[in-house]
Specification:
About 45% of the residues lie in helices and about 15% in strands. By secondary structure, the chain is α/β, with parallel strands linked by helices.
């Protein structure tokens, strides 16, 4: 069996002390005042010799496992898969490995994942919380365990979080449709009490009210997380076959929009002439639809990197002040709202 490469081997190869090699491989070269050129030589030698650190010994010495847990709603959703990759890459730069799990929007599964990650002795957690998971997070908070919330949050929970201004983003998206002359704007959202979804609904309703548009009960559709395609298509059929047929749809997430586009395309409904469409978050599907979809873009890279930085900061200073950081959004305007006729709002 081939002998495992040690720190001594790297030190001998470079011609430095084992202590210096240890500082560099633990990303502490600045603290030890090791020059960039020497640090790069050490890392290059480690790669060349295929050095594999003894993680068990390192964790016993430092009290850390150099692993983080990431809980998202659904890793198959492009939004969460992309944000997971951003966090994984950023964590790697700090010498951390990320373990990922999906809650499937279930508080019970969220609790199971948190328990599993704690048993694996992860050093911190980044969580997109499921509905009714506030009690789990409060327990982590009371135990002093470092974690950061992303995308979702609970107003009554004093925890580090990174998210967007959902109310303002939804308001601006709805007002864009109004400026384009759409007057019967329907919204498709999830049936959930999570604040981020409630804020999107509130922003939509506020924009209609501010522009003198009276909302109709049948302009709001809410669906669960299971049987998504069928529920959305059934709901759209009911709304579009009704007396006050909507002339625009605001989808509260990209998953809802994709489900809706399938029905709209199959029914031959013309976009944007007959129906305007806006979605929260982007999807590759939007580019392939014959009328590329206007959407609210969240900077996933900023959300992921900021969340990782917050977690690193909290792990270094557990008693530090908790921060709630808002990331800017941008409305990406494309053909699905490019209506040529601008009607005067009365």
């Amino acid at each position: 069996m081939e002998r495992k490469v040690s720190i001594k081997d790297i030190a001998k190869q470079v011609g430095v002390s084992t202590a210096l090699v240890s500082y560099v491989l633990n990303n502490k070269e600045k603290e030890a005042r090791v020059g960039k050129e020497v640090a790069e030589k050490v890392r290059r030698a480690a790669r060349k010799l295929n050095y594999q650190p003894n993680l068990i010994a390192r964790s016993l010495q430092s009290g850390r496992t150099q692993t983080l847990g990431l809980i998202v709603a659904d890793i198959s959703n492009p939004f969460f898969s992309y944000i997971a990759r951003v966090i994984e890459d950023a964590a790697n730069q700090h010498g951390y490995t990320v373990i990922i799990g999906s809650s499937d929007e279930q508080a019970s599964k969220s609790a199971t994942l948190i328990g599993a990650f704690l048993n694996r002795q992860v050093d911190g957690l980044i969580i997109a919380p499921a509905e009714q998971s506030e009690k789990q997070l409060r327990t982590l908070l009371n135990d002093g365990f470092p974690f950061v919330l992303i995308d979702r949050y609970f107003p009554g929970l004093s925890a580090n979080s990174v998210h967007i201004d959902n109310y303002r983003s939804a308001y601006d998206a709805s007002e864009h449709l109004i400026r384009k002359g759409y007057r019967r704007i329907a919204m498709v959202a999830y049936e959930t009490a999570l604040p981020h979804m409630q804020e999107r609904i509130r922003g939509y309703l506020a924009a209609l009210k501010a522009n003198g548009i009276r909302t109709k009960r049948n302009w709001m559709m809410k669906t669960g997380f299971t049987n998504l395609d069928q529920d959305v298509q059934t709901g759209l059929r009911k709304m579009l076959d009704g007396k006050e047929r909507p002339d625009a749809f605001f989808f509260a997430t990209n998953s809802l929009a994709v489900a809706g586009l399938k029905y709209i395309y199959r029914e031959g409904i013309r976009v944007p002439e007959e129906l305007g469409i806006i979605s929260f978050d982007e999807s590759d599907v939007f580019d392939f639809f014959y009328a590329p979809v206007t959407y609210v873009r969240q900077s996933i890279e900023d959300i992921g990197k900021t969340a990782l930085d917050l977690l690193m900061k909290q792990m270094k200073n557990p008693n530090g002040k908790k921060e709630q950081i808002l990331i800017d959004t941008k409305l990406i305007i494309r053909k699905s709202t490019a209506r040529t006729e601008i009607k005067t709002i009365k």
